[in-house]
Amino acid sequence: MRVDKTFSKLFLSVGAMKAGTTWLYANLSRHPALHFAMEKEIHYFYHHYINNNFLNEDRRLREAKNRYISRFDPEKANIDAVRQNLQWVTAYLDSPVNDTWFRNLFHLRRRQIYACDFSNLNSHLPAAAWQDIEGKCSKLRVLYTMRDPVKRLWSHTKFQLQLMGQVENLDTWGPKEFRKFTKQDHLWVNAEYGKALRALKTGLAPETLKVMFYEDIHADQRGTLRQIEEFLNLKPFDYPQAVLDKRFTESVKHKMPDFFPELFEKEIARIRVEIEAEGYTLPASWG
Hints:
Helix content is 49%, strand content 10%. By secondary structure, it is of the alpha/beta class.
């Protein structure tokens, strides 16, 4: 007897923040077999399993106003595209925020094979959540990306200060201030690759999970995208070179202080050991 699943075929990228997910999204969103909602990072599963106030009405209203409703120019816009966008916003603002809500965000999906969500906060889900999600899908595929932990941490620190309008701290802070800022729970949790890997590998079937390194992605961009297509059992697509060459969400340019790596030396050594314990070989460029 056939049992209908809550979700059909779902592709989730849950890479660590500042570890290449936006670049992957920019390229993979061009594949004709992959359907993305208007929002690259929906964060529904983080909301459902960790913080059920994350996608509250205030947040969704702000997102709708700032990112969707005011985004088109009436002098240039295509009316059919605007209508579809407004249909999506209506679904996004609907309540309650539950599995049906998430599924409805992909209502414009036609012949594409996968519904896709690239939310880095999903990397914080526990193993039990991954087991539950996989059980709700007719087919689930999850991609997790990692980057040199020191370089990722520095990029994330710059990015966060830029968002806060505090870029000047990059010039004035010393070791004590940088460590205190970076060790905040919401920021540091993205560095805990080992914890994320253990949850993913415990909660998911082996064929459901693919792990990649940021450094390998950019060493062979087309080869990496082909690996992902094979992981998803998709036909190859010829991605535009201009998009392959582009960099996205780059942080402000600022040299890493010489003392920065030493601030986290013990933690980084532990994380490296944890990654290797899960069976992965670290890129040579990690040192």
